[in-house]
Each structure stands twice: as C-alpha cells, then as structure tokens.
Amino acid sequence: MLRVKRTSVVLDMLVFGMAAALFLSSAVFRWMGEGYITTAFYLMMFGIIALDVGAFLHSAFHIYRDVHFLLFVFAYNLLLLGRVYFNSMYFPHKMLVALEADSWDNLYTALTVVATGLLAFIVFYYAAGPLFAKYERQIVRGQAERKKENGTLPVIRQLSKIMLYASSIPYFYTMALKVLTVLKNGYSASFTDTMEIPGIISRLSAVFVPSFAVFLGTLPSVKEMKLPLLVYGVYMVASLFTGRRNMLVTEALMLLVYFVMRDFRRAKGKRRITKKVVAFCGIGGVLGAYLLQMMAYKRAGNFILTRSFGDVLMSFVDSQGASFRVVIQTVNNMPSFDQNITWLYLLYPFELFAHNNLVIRNLFGLQPIVEVQNEGFAKSTHNFAHVLTYKVDPQRYEGGGGFGTSFIAESYVAGGIAAVVLLAIMAAVLFRFLSSILAHNWVVIAFGMLAFRQLIYLPRSFAFTWATETFSITNIVYFAALYAIALLIIQISAKVRPRTRAPSVESLPDSKSPTTEIIGG
Questions:
Q1: What is the average per-residue pLDDT within 330-338?
Q2: How far is CA 224 from CA 112, 215, 282, 422, 486, in A?
C-alpha cells in the first residue's frame, strides 16, 4: 500500500500551487501589453523561486534519493539565473544593460525559456519515478547491499587501481603543459594555443578518469579508497592551476553524490552522513565559493584582499550566472540565425566526435576539426559557443574570449520552446535513472559517474557532450579490455591453483557400488 505523508502533500499543494499562480499571473500581465511587461518579468522570476522551494521541500523527504536532482536544480539556478537574481537585488534600474537585453520583451522571453526548461525538468523528474521504482525499492530495502561480489569484481577493482596509478603520470604531465601555457601566456591563451602531445602519453592519460570511475563502480571499502582518492584529489586541486574552476567543482559533486548514495545503502542506524556532516559540507561549500571567486579575481588581474566576504559571494553568484547571457544573446540575435542549419548546433558534439575519430574519419573521408578562434572557423562551424560569440562581439572572440554555450540556448535556437521541453525531459529521465544507479553492476555505475560529471554542467555545456564524452570509443574499449583481462586472470589462476578434488572412489566408505553411491549422493 502506498503511504503518503500528509505534510509533504500540503507543502506541495501550497508551494507548487503558488508557483503555478505566479506563472499564470505573469502570462496575464504579459498579454496585457508592453506597459505591464516589467511586472510580468518579476512575477516570472518569483514563480521560479517558488518552484525551486517546492522542489527542495518535496525532495527533503527523499534527500538520499534526490541529492543529485537538487544539486542540478541548484546548478541550473546558479548558472542560468544567478545574474538575474543579483541584478534584481542590486541594479533593478539597470536591468536591461546589466543583463545585455535589447528590450524588455527579449528579457522576458529569455526568462520564460529558462523557466520552461526548469519546470519541465522538475515535473518529469518526479513523473519518471515509476520507470525506475523497482531499482529504487532495492536500494531502500537494502537488497543491493546484500548482493555478493562476483568473481571478476575484485580483479577489476585491482586492475583499475593499477591503471589509475600508471595513467596518473602522463595525465599530470599533460596538465602541467596546460598550466605552463596559462602561466606564460595567460588564461585566454589556453583556448587559442595548441599543444603537441606524444600519442602514447595522450592515450595513457585518456584512461585516468575512467580508471577512477571503474574503481568507484566496484564499490570498494573505505580502506581501499584512501590512496586512489589521494591521487584523484591531487588531480582535482591541480586542475585549478589551469585556470578552469569547473573541473574541480564537477569532480567534487560527483564524489559527493557517490558517497551519499553509498551511505543510503547502509541501515539507518549505521549511516555516516549526519546533520553535523551536512552542516560542515554546507560551510565548506560556502568557503569553496569564496575561494573560487578570489581565484577568478586573480585570473582577471583584479585581486583585492579588502573585499568583504559577502561582496565576494555575491560576485560569485553574478559571475557564475553569466550563462544567462548565452540565452539573452540568443534571443537578441534570433533573426540572424539560418533556421535551416540551427538543428545542427545540437548535434555538434557528435559531429566533432565523428570528424576527430580516426576510424570514422578514414571510413567516410572526413577532415579533422581543429577548434581555433578566428573568423574562418566561426563562419563554418556548428559549434554554437563560437557562432554566438562571433555574432555578438567579433573582436572579443578573436582575442580568445567567449560566452560559452548552454543546452537551453542550443535547444531554443534549434526548435523553440518545444525543443527546450524535450531536452529538459531527457535530462530529467537521466537524473532519475541515476537515483538508483548503485543497484546495477560496475559498468553502469562507472558510466553513470562519468556521465554525471557532464550532466551537472548542462546549463553551461553542449546538449550532448555528456553522451560523446561518456560513451567514447576509448571508454568502451577500455571497459571491455578490463573485463576481458579480469576473465583471463581468473582462468589462469584456476589452472595454477585448481580447486580441491573430490575424494577418490577407493577412499569412500562402503563403496561396494561406487557408481551408484556417487550418482545417488
């Protein structure tokens, strides 16, 4: 029998009902004409806030299951709406200039597009529950914890550790080259300068992150995780010296989700993530945001220690919310896009994969794609980040600057609101699947962890980078090779150390009819 918590139902009706009323009121004011569009904009914004509160309160009753969902909702608000919230509080009189909107009509349209994506994601995340209810029940009942390891799992765990350590050396070497480029020529140069890396080093470094994902997928004990976590932690911290903050953040969020899900598999009395731990994580997150923003000041040559703690945090929200610029500039420049090819912007990750994969390139006679920031590339590519930045500011583009991209902007320019809803539904189903990922085998867990690193960054990323980066030929071949080697090792071990043989017929007592005794036994 389905049990429904009355408190949860009442809160859902109140908060989600308030969000629906605000969205409806916003639409009514927008319909009333240009004189009411400012009111419509703010009603839409408060409707989004009410929707966020409703999602948090509803998932608070299922926090272990929905932790990754809440992180995405938070990331969506920070990356796509942080700048909107910041300027609504501090510069409401300069909203159009601050948000780079050509008109209030465009600003309202951009906010509507973002709100539609968030609404579709939240609604369909909850609606997709029945699709994965079987595996979620296994987690709740602790069935996943009681599953015995098969023979290959310990071997795969050891192989992944060996490969993690072996590939860490070439991986850190390639990262050191990136750091030197940034230190020598500046942060923007890392996007325009190219580096020559020997093939063997490039191939070995490519399995560093997948090796760690496989290791996590085998569900090792805390003791077994210490050294691999230390090695991976060095990579996470070192990534900051490349000037990119997102690598550290996405990896940290992946580990957070993984350990919360692992904790959910334990009995309630044995769980290690307590309210005290959550409070420390919250404080750590705030301090982390402060330090990341100070790093951004340093990178921009604007480092001042006298800034107040609150000002730095608000600047962090404003800077992270820069992805709204992608959406508003998409709306501003909609008439200039060739509608016959806009759908190709969504498929660019697949195009890049096909052109740069040696086998596919040779089979179909394709030319490799080398991403450089110049006029020729901007006018010929389907990379939406390059196309949009060049349309808006050619000088900034050729100087190494850029707006980046967003799956919301890409889907809107490709197919309007309908495409935004479809892409949001895709994300919702993927995140709902991740809620029960630990009920599956090591392959699914490893691919899931790799995908999460990309999915959590969707508001500031290409729509399908998660697919090409996760299910790359390198990862698929590597996982298959690990499994094949594990099977081979097990077979060799069985021959070297055969199992204890059954006692001979002569040693059996009263063996007048040995054949009958053996068959009957």
A1: 93
A2: 48, 10, 27, 41, 19
Alpha helices in 218-320 (DSSP H): 222-238, 246-264, 275-299, 309-320
Residue 513 lies in a domain: no
Residues 126 and 161 in one domain: no
Q: Are 118 and 422 in contact (CB under 8 A)?
A: no
214 HSE (CA, 13 A, CB side): 27
- Of 72, 106, 139, which closes a domain? 139
Residues 6+ away with beta carbon under 8 Å from 468: 349, 350, 352, 353
Cα distance between residue 141 and residue 145, in whole Å: 9
Please state, in angstroms and rounded to a whole number, the distance separating the CA atoms of residues 310 and 301. 20
pLDDT digits (tens, 9 = 90+) for 144-182: 444 555 678 999 999 999 999 999 999 998 888 888 887
Domain end: 107, 139, 171, which one?
139
Q: How many residues does the chain have?
A: 521
Q: Is residue 520 part of a domain?
A: no
Taken in order 463, 452, 77, 427, the sign of the CA dihedral is: positive
Type of residue found at 502: A
List of residues 6+ apart from 274 with CB closer than 8 A: none
- Which token pair is 308? 């107040």
Q: Is the pLDDT of residue 433 over 60?
A: yes
Dist CA 131 CA 282 (whole Å) = 32
* DSSP category for residue 497: S
pTM for the model: 0.88
Of 43-57, 213-227, 308-322, 425-439, give the lowest mean pLDDT range. 308-322
pLDDT of 71 above 80: yes
Buried b (16+ CB within 10 A) or exposed e, 457-474: bbbbbbbbbbbbbbebee
Residue pLDDT, tens place only, 485-508: 999 999 988 777 655 554 544 444
Q: Distance between CA 182 and CA 193 in Å, rounded? A: 10
pLDDT digits (tens, 9 = 90+) for 336-359: 999 899 999 999 999 999 998 888
pLDDT band at residue 7, thresholds of 50, 70 and 90? low
Domain membership of residue 519 (yes or no) is no
Q: Is the pLDDT of residue 273 over 70?
A: yes
Question: 397: closest CA among 376, 366, 422, 419?
Answer: 376
Task: Give the CA distances from residue 516 to residues 201, 501, 506, 519, in Å, rounded to whole numbers and listed in that order.
Answer: 63, 19, 14, 5
Dist. CA 178–CA 195, nearest whole Å: 8
Say if residue 252 is in the same domain as residue 303.
Answer: yes
- Domain span at residue 58 reads 6-139
- At 255, is the secondary structure helix, strand, or coil? helix
